[in-house]
Amino acid sequence: xxxxxxxxxxxxxxxxxxxxxxxxxxxxxxxxxxxxxxxxxxxxxxxxxxxxxxxxxxxxxxxxxxxxxxxxxxxxxxxxxxxxxxxxxxxxxxxxxxxxxxxxxxxxxxxxxxxxxxxxxxxxxxxxxxxxxxxxxxxxxxxxxxxxxxxxxxxxxxxxxxxxxxxxxxxxxxxxxxxxxxxxxxxxxxxxxxxxxxxxxxxxxxxxxxxxxxxxxxxxxxxxxxxxxxxxxxxxxxxxxxxxxxxxxxxxxxxxxxxxxxxxxxxxxxxxxxxxxxxxxxxxxxxxxxxxxxxxxxxxxxxxxxxxxxxxxxxxxxxxxxxxxxxxxxxxxxxxxxxxxxxxxxxxxxxxxxxxxxxxxxxxxxxxxxxxxxxxxxxxxxxxxxxxxxxxxxxxxxxxxxxxxxxxxxxxxxxxxxxxxxxxxxxxxxxxxxxxxxxxxxxxxxxxxxxxxxxxxxxxxxxxxxxxxxxxxxxxxxxxxxxx
Length: 484
Description:
The chain is α/β, with parallel strands linked by helices and about 475 residues long. It has 2 domains: about 55-165 and about 330-430, Periplasmic binding protein-like II (D-Maltodextrin-Binding Protein, domain 2); about 165-330 and about 440-475, D-Maltodextrin-Binding Protein, domain 2. The chain has 21 helices and 14 strands. It has helices spanning about 1-20, 65-75, 95-100, 120, 135-140, 145-150, 175-180, 185-190, 195-210, 225, 245-260, 270-275, 300-305, 345-355, 360-370, 375-380, 400-405, 410-415, 420-430, 440-455, 465-475; strands at about 55-60, 80-85, 110-115, 150-155, 155, 160, 165-170, 215, 235, 240, 290, 290-295, 320-325, 335-340. The strands form 5 sheets. Strands 2-1-3-14-6 form a 5-stranded mixed β-sheet. Strands 12-7-13 form a 3-stranded antiparallel β-sheet. A two-stranded antiparallel sheet has the order 4-5. Helix 15 crosses helix 17 and helix 20 packs antiparallel against helix 21 (about 465-475). The protein is globular.
């Protein structure tokens, strides 16, 4: 009996100890997505058991939006700690630090790559790992061919994107009614269907507004539409190619500058954004307006909509925008992700890339605004208060696009566009986007052209000076390139 009493007392003590310690909770996974935007339930915020050592995955990016992906991934994988490093690329810092880290113990596992330089990394033999085993899943998701094309070199897949980025022309409805008598997208598209019509419309706007309304905010707005419509890439057989569309771009930019069709704002500068919300003024303080902006899919939720209201709240153009194809079809930008060659966490890196760029539930949540700050804080309470993903980014999976397009009919973005469903328009344009022009040299070649163009548009030299200055810079950057 004494022995039994002793055993019972031990069991009671043990049960009390367990009750006091508690049982570690398991991180609750988000609810499954359906055809319509499905995720409304916020996952429970819990910590993994202190005794459990998490696997660390290092992700580097130049854009903070991917941090939303990392938090959502941790919500599905509580045994993984994603270390997210944000490095700006304002002055090339991101590429500088990345290239310095590659091949060292400081190299990350996963890297984000912007459209301007993604091909440089994809075409390299010793930077990105082969992730071709993700192709069947990408094909099942009906990833747009242009997205796969950009991330592939010599038949080897090196990178994937969660976005597809066809472009469009966004215009002010009230100004369209004032100068053309209609704001109907079909009629405005007919008026602006090609470059000649676009230029003629710019003259109408200038005359009727007395020079107070510009057709575009910046000459830089033209660059992607023209460059996307070249017949050949910049380099063919180790020789520089100046496609006629490059010459046409400079000719058009000069015409718009000299005729007062362009606000002369610096693209991505204060004046350029001010034109989006009617707070733009000239040097004398006189109010000015901008009729249209060339922007891609991401330009609506990330650029135009957030800047439609001025900082002081005095101006707000929300609901006064329409969207059309414009005079030229084009694509602009995008962010790809690849695994760094030699990473010891290759399988986990591929799992993260799959989640970010192929997974149907994640892409649905990403596109439809499920990843609110509340949702993310439930997974990681330490994230910033402004970390979230607004609805509207156009994703790379046609399977997801087909399921969610109708959900934007009555969305906030639709209201912003006067009732238009921009997602449907982008869905029609995305399959025809051409990625074959993109090469690893594009970024350097196009950056070298920016200053000579700016000087020429400002009257600081002739067109011959522009070409000579640009080509001299390229001879330094590409000493083995044939430049005629």
